[in-house]
């Protein structure tokens, strides 16, 4: 029977009676460890594969493959082997002895499994605890009160079958595009309650302070009193609600209205607690649940609203994953994931493709992350018979988390529509059910979640009748997708009324440490390397891009501060609830480290605070700086924004000095005379210790030599146009003051190249070319043996390489990177990658086995390309086109696509304006400076030692 009570229906005397009695809560005894780091050893027998056929020991919780048992299976393996699943159907048999307290006799005692893959049969003291549980990712329990010994040890026996006896469970969970495992991978524990107890509560707390709670009870044998104390974050009781339950009642609903509640959102994750007490006779039993006051609305044709404000999700898809322990995680790893999501300025996560660990949801509650909680179903659905109990298990475990905004009823066609109505049976707040899909016709409840649309089809969907919230997009395999093209996509979604936001596939590369292959990292070819982050949460290039793109504070700070700068910067407040006056802003004037300094980055020379402007959420305004009069004497301006909790939102950099000024003292000139020697085939120009030899016929650099250490630097065979034609028409050598000049003129697209040698040894190359058309890149290239290179240090954009459609997240600074030949998403995992495109370079130092090579430019917008690399692997070609040569100096670079783009990276234009090829016309002039060796500077050595750095930021 269900009863509804509102505040004040019972007398205060009953409340006094309740508070005078000693209360008890559910008692917990862990049989396993509490997480992947804190485990307990059980006896174990594996029926097939490694270490099978004899009893051994295993840590619980764990995936047994990571403990050295059985065989590794990727979900696609099952498809390639037809329906012969028996090959994979290992079983794991567990045994464990335990005692229970004598004081538990007479109580209700359950054994609880938080997650076991896949079919799980449980016996206590040789007797069955109940029906076999089918389904991996759900909390299930058995009442074992009548099976226990209280005066001697108990024997727990668990048989876990890797494959389910229910075909629909295999279809939903196992035949999937991810690694599949076996074992008890989440904790196992006992819970003890009195005979009359509260099973669980369902909370519905609205933003306006309306509070409703369904209390589900068991075994109520006489009239009992219920009280609910609502506590704020400091533990103060802010409201008390009274009710009662009559004999046989199983449900009581308590209701109240609170004033001035602090609302829960991703920006204000305010949590309350409710302490529910059941007084049944002389027994007093309590349940405590955390919750938040918030209202979720899906306004059809308009958007998703939290507390009356339209909200757009900025999220990623997350599997429960760690390379060494697979789906069994530690609390520290789960906290790491939650913090990284927040660091990327995301506000949401989709728990794909199954419910996560309970602890992760608690972190989302407390940190402020919107959650899609998903029933498993990877392109195939559970049957109604198999799925019905699993919906109940998922919802009853998770229903009170304020972070959960939607229930997802499966993924990409794995939707059993007969289960949709089941969610509301258990969710007292009646959240909306969605379908995470990539097939037409699966939209539900006014929300279309279609996957992997391109930019232009996205435009069409956002102009249609439904809310559009792609629950997978911009597939982040290798270095493609994720941050690439996201700036265009996010601006499109941000400006659209009908956007519900976006979820990128996926958060991490899911490489597993193969215990059968000398602990190598295995991503199953190109199947599982889909992350914004590496397997151990290494930060790939897209991490940095997304952090800037998703920043809720958007500053229009130019790359080069204009000479007429008046301190005013346009600001777009993309918070949903936060006024910028709640944030804090800081400025710093900095000098970049110099080429010979022994450190990277910048030195803070002056700093100050900025008055926070009063700009409402989702509105625009200006940030007004008051800089000192001498601000132009410094290299750059840095601005930092922090949120109301003091967390850094983002840091922007704008250069103040021109590149020509920043190069003074490094690129030097002397008043002595350079020299030239000419033969029938070459020009040899010499300044100081450096000699550069140029071929008359091709116009190319042949060789360089530095006599100070008597080495030849193998930098040669350029300049060669990366796009276009060039044939030497004529050449000449002449004096220009004390410098010597060799000038080549060309027919074709390269017009002129002028080499100038100064007696300091610095060599200037001025060139002009004119190409036109839609081109991936333009500029010139040289050759240098890649295997000679040790590392690079540069003043320019970094730390990660850039693409035309992924320039965000790469501020100008002094960066350093040791040579590596890694491929994004593959072992060995080293970030940032050495090879690639680096933008807005002022100077670069290449360290080689032959010595140093210095490159500099006084012009803006120089890209330096380092060597050959594949950014996106695929079964089909072409791979991304790479310029000729292997060190290039470019004026534009190509975009990158995703593995799901039609034509791979040849058709990146479908991802929006920034993903189109470069529309090139007209001529381009540029100046480069080279030094082959270790140059002398006009500054003293002391000027290049590291001063004390003020780490204000």
Automatic annotation (TrEMBL):
Domain Glycosyl hydrolases family 2 sugar binding: from-to ranges: 54-194
Domain of life: Bacteria
Cofactor(s) demanded: Ca(2+)
Record-level GO BP terms: lactose catabolic process
Pfam family, one: Glyco_hydro_2_C
Record-annotated Beta galactosidase small chain/ domain positions: 732-872
InterPro entries associated with the record: B-gal_small/dom_5 (IPR004199), Bact_Beta-galactosidase (IPR050347), Beta-gal/glucu_dom_sf (IPR036156), Gal_mutarotase_sf_dom (IPR011013), Galactose-bd-like_sf (IPR008979), GH (IPR017853), GH-type_carb-bd (IPR014718), Glyco_hydro_2_cat (IPR006103)
The EC number(s) this enzyme carries: 3.2.1.23
Signal sequence residues: 1-23
Gene Ontology MF term list: beta-galactosidase activity; carbohydrate binding
Catalytic activity: Hydrolysis of terminal non-reducing beta-D-galactose residues in beta-D-galactosides
Glycoside hydrolase family 2 immunoglobulin-like beta-sandwich domain boundaries: 205-294
Keywords, comma-separated and alphabetical: Calcium, Glycosidase, Hydrolase, Signal
CC annotations in GO: beta-galactosidase complex
Domain Glycoside hydrolase family 2 catalytic residue range list: 297-513
Family under the similarity heading: Belongs to the glycosyl hydrolase 2 family.
Subunit structure, as described in the record: Monomer.
Protein name: Beta-galactosidase
Organism: Lacibacter luteus
């Amino acid at each position: 029977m269900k009863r509804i009570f509102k505040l004040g229906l019972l007398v205060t005397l009953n409340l006094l009676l309740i508070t005078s009695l000693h209360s008890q809560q559910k008692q917990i005894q862990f049989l396993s460890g509490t997480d992947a780091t804190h485990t307990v050893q059980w006896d174990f027998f594996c029926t097939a594969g490694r270490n099978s056929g004899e009893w051994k020991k295993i840590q619980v919780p764990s995936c047994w493959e990571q403990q050295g048992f059985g065989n590794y299976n990727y979900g696609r393996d099952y498809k390639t082997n037809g329906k012969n699943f028996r090959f994979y159907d290992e079983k794991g048999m567990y045994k464990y002895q335990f005692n229970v307290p004598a004081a538990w006799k007479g109580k209700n005692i359950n054994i609880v499994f938080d997650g076991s893959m896949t079919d799980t049969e449980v016996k206590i003291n040789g007797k069955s605890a109940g029906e076999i549980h089918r389904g991996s990712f759900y909390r299930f329990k058995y009442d074992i009160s009548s099976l226990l010994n209280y005066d001697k040890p108990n024997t727990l026996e668990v048989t876990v079958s890797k494959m389910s006896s229910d075909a629909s469970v295999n279809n939903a969970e196992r035949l999937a595009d991810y690694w599949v495992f076996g074992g008890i991978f989440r904790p196992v524990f006992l819970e003890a309650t009195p005979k009359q107890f509260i099973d669980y509560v369902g909370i519905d707390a609205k933003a306006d302070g309306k509070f409703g709670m369904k209390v589900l009870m068991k075994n109520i044998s006489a009239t009992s009193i219920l009280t609910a104390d609502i506590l704020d974050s400091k533990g103060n009781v802010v409201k008390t609600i009274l009710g009662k339950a009559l004999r046989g009642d199983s449900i009581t609903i308590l209701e109240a209205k609170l004033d001035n509640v602090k609302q829960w959102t991703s920006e204000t994750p305010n949590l309350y607690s409710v302490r529910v007490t059941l007084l049944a006779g002389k027994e007093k039993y309590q349940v405590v649940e955390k919750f938040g006051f918030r209202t979720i609305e899906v306004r059809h044709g308009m958007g998703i609203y939290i507390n009356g404000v339209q909200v757009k999700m900025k999220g990623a898809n997350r599997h429960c994953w760690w390379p060494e322990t697979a789906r069994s995680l530690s609390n520290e790893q789960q906290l790491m994931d939650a913090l990284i999501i927040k660091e990327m300025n995301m506000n949401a996560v989709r728990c794909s493709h199954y419910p996560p660990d309970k602890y992760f949801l608690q972190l989302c509650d407390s940190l402020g992350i919107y959650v899609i909680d998903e029933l498993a179903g990877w392109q195939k659905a559970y049957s109604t018979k198999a799925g019905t109990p699993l919906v109940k298990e998922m919802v009853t475990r998770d229903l009170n988390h304020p972070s959960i905004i939607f229930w997802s009823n499966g993924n990409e066609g794995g939707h059993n529509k007969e289960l949709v109505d089941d969610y509301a049976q258990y969710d007292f707040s009646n959240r909306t059910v969605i379908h995470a899909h990539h097939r037409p016709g699966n939209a539900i409840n006014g929300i279309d979640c279609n996957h992997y649309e391109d930019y232009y089809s996205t435009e069409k969907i956002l102009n249609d009748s439904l809310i559009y919230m792609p629950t997978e997009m911009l597939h982040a395999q290798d270095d493609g997708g994720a941050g690439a093209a996201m700036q265009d996509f996010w601006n499109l979604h941000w400006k659209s009324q009908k956007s519900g936001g976006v979820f990128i596939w996926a958060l991490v590369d899911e490489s597993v440490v193969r215990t059968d292959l000398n602990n190598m990292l295995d991503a199953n070819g190109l199947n599982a390397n889909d992350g914004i982050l590496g397997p151990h949460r290494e930060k790939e290039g897209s991490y940095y891009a997304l952090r800037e793109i998703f920043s809720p504070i958007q500053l229009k700070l130019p790359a080069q501060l204009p000479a007429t700068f008046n301190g005013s910067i346009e600001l777009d407040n993309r918070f949903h609830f936060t006024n910028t006056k709640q944030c804090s802003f800081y400025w710093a004037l900095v000098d970049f480290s110099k080429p010979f300094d022994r450190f990277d980055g910048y030195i803070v020379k002056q700093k100050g605070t900025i008055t926070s402007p009063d700009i409402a959420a989702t509105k625009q305004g200006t940030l007004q700086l008051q800089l000192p009069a001498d601000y132009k004497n410094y290299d750059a301006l840095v601005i930092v924004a922090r949120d109301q909790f003091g967390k850094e939102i983002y840091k922007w950099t704008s250069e103040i000095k021109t590149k020509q000024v920043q190069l003074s003292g490094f690129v030097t000139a002397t008043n002595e005379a350079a020299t030239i020697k000419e033969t029938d085939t070459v020009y040899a120009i010499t300044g100081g210790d450096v000699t550069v030899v140029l071929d008359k016929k091709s116009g190319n650099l042949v060789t360089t030599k530095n006599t100070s250490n008597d080495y030849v630097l193998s930098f040669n065979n350029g300049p060669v146009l990366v796009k276009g034609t060039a044939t030497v028409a004529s050449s000449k050598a002449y004096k220009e003051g004390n410098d010597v000049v060799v000038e080549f003129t060309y027919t074709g697209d390269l017009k002129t190249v002028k080499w100038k040698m100064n007696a300091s040894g610095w060599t200037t190359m001025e060139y002009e070319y004119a190409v036109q058309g839609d081109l991936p890149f333009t500029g010139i290239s040289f050759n240098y043996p890649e295997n000679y290179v040790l590392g690079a240090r540069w003043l320019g954009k970094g730390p990660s390489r850039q693409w035309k459609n992924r320039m965000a997240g790469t501020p100008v600074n002094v960066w350093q990177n040791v040579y590596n030949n890694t491929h994004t998403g593959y072992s060995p995992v080293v970030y940032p990658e050495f090879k690639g495109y680096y933008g807005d370079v002022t100077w670069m130092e290449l360290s080689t086995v032959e010595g140093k090579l210095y490159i500099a430019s006084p012009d803006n917008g120089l890209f330096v390309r380092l060597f050959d690399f594949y950014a996106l692997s695929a079964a089909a070609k072409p791979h991304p086109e790479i310029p000729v040569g292997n060190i290039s100096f470019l004026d534009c670079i190509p975009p990158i696509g995703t593995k799901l783009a039609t034509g791979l990276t040849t058709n990146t234009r479908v991802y929006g304006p920034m993903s189109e090829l470069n529309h090139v016309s007209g001529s381009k002039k540029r100046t480069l400076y080279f030094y082959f060796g270790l140059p002398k500077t006009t500054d003293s050595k002391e000027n290049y030692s590291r001063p004390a750095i003020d780490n204000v930021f």
